[in-house]
């Protein structure tokens, strides 16, 4: 097939993502300006940074090979982290259910809804490390602070997800039970709980995995678990032990993620 | 001229899906391929542009042996073969123009492709073809905003943008309603004659095949058992091709003497 | 799940039983509950909690909150600027991480990776990045580059790569193959197939995931300062160490405000992208 095509004189350009040219260019300039401004106003200590590469080499030399001499400390730290994760997941789940119901717009009256959602927002807004610091100040160092922290952490996630699930349920089932004469609690039991159960179980397993990871770090501020062990290692420049701990953390997280993923897949 | 000789396609150790197929398609003809599901129509088409790898045999297009090509040579050869798909296979989020220009990707330098700065000649060609099929006003619309028939037209234009030496259409109307279906078939027929293009169309609707194509090839169990003009497609011939055999009882065609007679014809 | 008996005859029908679970299922449920109970009992009995402290806890927390009230506006300017600095850390770091994550996601996805080695490499990078918490990365970078915002930015970048890369990689593996087939039939090279077939399909996910990660990073960057990696964490640590609880309260409120605004922006943008 030969190509003697009539010249139409028409051009074509891809329609830009943002149609309005002023908005488009304005946005682009704003982004570039922001990046420039942010980078220049951030306080970089260039001298100290230049020391970085030789320091990095020194650290990596010191970190290899990872040392497991203090293996017992490692093991104890991990056991504590696991225990913190288990208890706080359970406690968090138990508390999340009523809070979730209080935060579901289709179930809770307006005033309760506001309180419930408020609790969730506060629980979510703070990084678990901050919450850990506060609890450490309140109840002292150790796993108790860790459990309280991760319970709050769990509530922030599980209650929110559960509340969303409750808001999405098939209302017809609730009406059916109500029509049959069911009182509030019975209605919840027969019409709502079965609908949210699968999500609840999936969330529980996900949160257990999440808490296991988080328990590794709340220890860094003194809330127990392997995090404290890691912080001490860094503080004593025990980089080989620190590497051993980190590798174990990675390993445990991977295993936990694999198991949790496998279980959740089989649920569906 | 497309020349297929002794084409065999076998998946693993199983029975061959295509069995020693021979077919010749001279330039400028519209050939339809009919047959029941599983007869091998789609596999045949896809062997031609190597979307499916033939197990053995030869496929020659205008003097080039297609089965031996690899890498860049294969890509260059694929430019010469246009394909229209049952599911349209468009890039939903891109505009119609980009979809149509993607037919030129075998010819465009990478930087033009990435920046969408298409050469004026290609733009002219695109508008020309789009006007011919009636979708020029959709140039800036996203492909997924079009109806089925319109999308297939985009697919046709994309294939033609390649300036191909042959056009393959794999059940191009299976996803369309009857009226749009006929429009597309009429379009293919008209374009074939306007552009002097050989066209090979897989069809499941035999009436459309009879009405819009000049030559019908009937396949069954990986073999061609009918090859003739629409008028020759008698009810007997139809039975041979479609004989309503339920899936569980789909036996080996070779054990049927009746079919062997037909194949010998 | 339902265990019914199928009797015949009027007497048998009158005595039909129904139970929700089969015997096997019931044992499984009891077993699971027992397992969970066991885990909890083991944890609680062996954990290193000083129980008197637990009973004391509500009173201690109440005391702490009382001391935080009312929040003090002292040094609000420094708090404000540092908050801004925190936002910048999160934003700049997310910005760079987003660009770096795309090539890594491409080599970590089975359908776009050049060879087995790159697939393994991509997945390895993503897994390492995801499994090491931002704070731990921060500890490392503070040790290398010293305390300051660079350590914080790098920590966020390194952690975000895994998050972004994994989700992007999954999106890449789940694309519709039909357009890819069409592009192959046209004779397009791998690069062009990538640009026309893969990228347009993953664009919405790309933006949504990036915005989501920015939101998460906003939260993460508030604590980087606690290990010395810049941002408002430094001031927070300072206030806590000097028992300036009312200032602590202000900082906490500022953080809540920041996170809420960030979430609102992020939710809005994600809606626009889909």
Describe what you observe in this structure.
- The complex is a heterotrimer of chains A (268), B (265) and C (274).
- Chain A has 268 residues and is mainly α.
- Chain A has a single domain, classed as MetI-like (MetI-like fold, Orthogonal Bundle), CATH 1.10.3720.
- Chain A contains eleven helices and no strands.
- The longest helix of chain B has 17 residues.
- In chain B, helix 5 crosses helix 6.
- With 265 residues, chain B is α/β, with parallel strands linked by helices.
- Chain B has ten helices and ten strands.
- Chain B has two domains: 166 residues, Rossmann fold, CATH 3.40.50.300; 73 residues, no CATH class.
- Helix content of chain C is 78%, strand content 1%.
- Chain C is flat, with a radius of gyration of 27 Å.
Q: How would you summarize this macromolecular structure in one to three sentences?
A:
The complex is a heterotrimer of chains A (268), B (265) and C (274). Chain A is mainly α and 268 residues long.
- Fraction in helix of chain A: over 70%
User: How many strands, which pairing sense, and closed or not: the largest β-sheet of chain B?
Assistant: 6 strands, mixed
Name the CATH class of the largest domain in chain B.
Alpha Beta
Trace the largest sheet of chain B across and list its strands.
Answer: 6-7-8-3-9-10
The gyration radius over C-alpha positions of chain A equals 27 Å
CATH topology heading of the largest domain in chain B: Rossmann fold
How are the elements arranged and paired?
The complex is a heterotrimer of chains A (268), B (265) and C (274).
Chain A: H1 21-41, H2 46-50, H3 52-63, H4 71-102, H5 110-125, H6 128-139, H7 143-167, H8 171-179, H9 184-218, H10 226-235, H11 239-267
Helix pairs in contact in A: 3-11, 4-5, 4-7, 4-9, 4-10, 5-7, 6-7, 7-9, 8-9, 9-11, 10-11
Chain B: E1 2-10, E2 16-25, E3 30-35, H1 41-48, E4 56-61, E5 64-65, H2 71-79, E6 81-84, H3 96-101, H4 110-115, H5 120-133, H6 148-161, E7 166-170, H7 178-194, E8 199-202, H8 206-212, E9 215-220, E10 223-228, H9 235-242, H10 257-264
Parallel strand pairs in B: 3-8, 3-9, 6-7, 7-8
Antiparallel strand pairs in B: 1-2, 1-4, 4-5, 9-10
Helix pairs in contact in B: 5-6, 6-7
Chain C: E1 3-4, H1 10-14, E2 18-19, H2 23-46, H3 51-68, H4 76-108, H5 116-131, H6 134-145, H7 149-173, H8 177-186, H9 190-221, H10 232-241, H11 245-273
Antiparallel strand pairs in C: 1-2
């Amino acid at each position: 097939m030969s190509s003697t095509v009539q010249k139409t004189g028409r051009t074509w350009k891809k329609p830009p993502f943002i149609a309005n040219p002023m908005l488009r260019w304005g946005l682009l300039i704003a982004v570039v300006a922001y990046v420039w401004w942010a980078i220049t106003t951030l306080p970089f200590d260039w001298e100290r940074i230049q020391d970085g590469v030789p320091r990095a080499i020194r650290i990596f030399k010191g970190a290899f090979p990872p040392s497991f001499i203090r293996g017992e400390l490692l093991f104890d730290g991990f056991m504590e982290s696991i225990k913190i994760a288990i208890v706080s997941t359970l406690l968090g789940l138990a508390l999340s259910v009523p809070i979730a119901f209080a935060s579901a717009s289709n179930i809770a009256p307006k005033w309760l809804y506001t309180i419930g959602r408020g609790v969730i927002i506060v629980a979510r807004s703070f990084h678990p490390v901050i919450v850990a610091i506060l609890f450490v100040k309140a109840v002292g160092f150790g796993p108790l602070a860790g459990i309280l922290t991760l319970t709050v952490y769990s509530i922030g996630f599980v209650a929110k997800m559960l509340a969303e699930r409750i808001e999405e349920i098939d209302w017809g089932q609730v009406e059916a039970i109500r029509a049959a004469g069911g009182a509030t609690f019975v209605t919840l039991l027969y019409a709502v709980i079965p609908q949210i159960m699968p999500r609840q179980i999936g969330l529980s397993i996900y949160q257990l995995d999440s808490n296991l990871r988080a328990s590794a770090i709340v220890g860094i501020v003194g809330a127990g678990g392997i995090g404290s062990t890691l912080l001490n290692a860094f503080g004593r420049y025990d980089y080989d032990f620190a590497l051993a701990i980190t590798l174990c953390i990675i390993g445990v997280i991977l295993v936990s993620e694999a198991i949790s993923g496998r279980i959740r897949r089989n649920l569906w | 001229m497309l020349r297929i000789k002794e084409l065999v396609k076998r998946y693993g150790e199983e029975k061959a899906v295509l069995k020693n197929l021979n077919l010749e398609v001279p330039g400028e003809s519209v050939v339809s391929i009919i047959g029941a599901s599983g007869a091998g129509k789609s596999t045949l088409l896809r062997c031609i542009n190597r979307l499916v790898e033939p197990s053995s045999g030869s496929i020659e297009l205008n003097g080039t042996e297609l089965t031996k090509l690899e890498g860049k040579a294969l890509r260059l050869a694929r430019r010469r073969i246009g394909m229209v798909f049952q599911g349209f296979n468009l890039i939903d989020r891109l505009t119609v123009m980009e979809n149509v220009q993607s037919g030129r990707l075998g010819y465009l330098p990478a930087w033009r492709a990435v920046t969408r700065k298409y050469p004026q000649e290609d733009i002219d060609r695109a508008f020309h073809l789009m006007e011919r099929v009636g979708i020029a006003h959709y140039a800036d619309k996203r492909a997924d905003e079009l109806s089925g028939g319109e999308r297939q037209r985009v697919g046709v234009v994309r294939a033609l943008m390649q300036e191909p030496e042959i056009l393959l259409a794999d059940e191009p109307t299976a996803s369309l309603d009857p009226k749009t279906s006929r429009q597309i078939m009429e379009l293919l027929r008209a374009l074939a004659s306007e552009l002097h293009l050989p066209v090979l169309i897989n069809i499941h609707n035999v009436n459309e095949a009879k009405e819009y194509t000049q030559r019908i090839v009937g396949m069954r169990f990986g073999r061609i058992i009918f090859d003739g003009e629409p008028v020759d497609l008698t009810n007997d011939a139809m039975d041979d091709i479609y004989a309503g055999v339920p899936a569980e009882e789909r036996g080996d065609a070779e054990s049927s003497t009746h079919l062997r007679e037909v194949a010998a014809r | 799940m339902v265990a019914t008996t199928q009797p015949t005859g009027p007497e048998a029908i009158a005595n039909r039983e129904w139970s929700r679970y089969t015997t096997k299922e019931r044992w499984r449920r009891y077993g699971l509950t027992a397992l969970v109970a066991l885990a909890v009992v083991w944890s609680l009995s062996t954990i290193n909690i000083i129980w008197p402290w637990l009973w004391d806890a509500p009173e201690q927390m109440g005391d702490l909150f009382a001391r935080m009230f009312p929040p003090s506006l002292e040094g609000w300017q420094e708090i404000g600027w540092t908050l801004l600095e925190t936002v910048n850390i999160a934003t700049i770091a997310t910005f760079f991480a987003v660009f770096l994550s795309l090539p890594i996601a491409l080599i970590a996805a089975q359908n776009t990776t050049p060879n087995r080695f790159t697939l393994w490499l991509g997945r390895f990078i993503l897994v390492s990045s995801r499994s090491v918490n931002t704070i731990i990365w921060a500890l490392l970078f503070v040790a290398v580059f010293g305390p300051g915002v660079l350590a914080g930015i790098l920590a966020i970048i390194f952690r975000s790569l895994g998050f972004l890369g994994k989700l992007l990689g999954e999106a890449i593996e789940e694309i519709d193959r039909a357009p890819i087939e069409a592009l192959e039939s046209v004779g397009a090279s791998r690069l062009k197939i990538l640009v026309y077939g893969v990228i347009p399909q993953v664009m919405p996910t790309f933006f949504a995931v990036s915005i989501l990660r920015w939101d998460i990073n906003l939260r993460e960057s508030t604590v980087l300062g606690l290990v010395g990696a810049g941002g408002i964490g430094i001031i927070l640590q300072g206030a806590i160490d000097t028992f300036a609880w009312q200032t602590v309260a202000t900082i906490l409120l500022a953080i809540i405000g920041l996170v809420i605004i960030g979430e609102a922006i992020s939710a809005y943008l994600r809606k626009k992208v889909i």
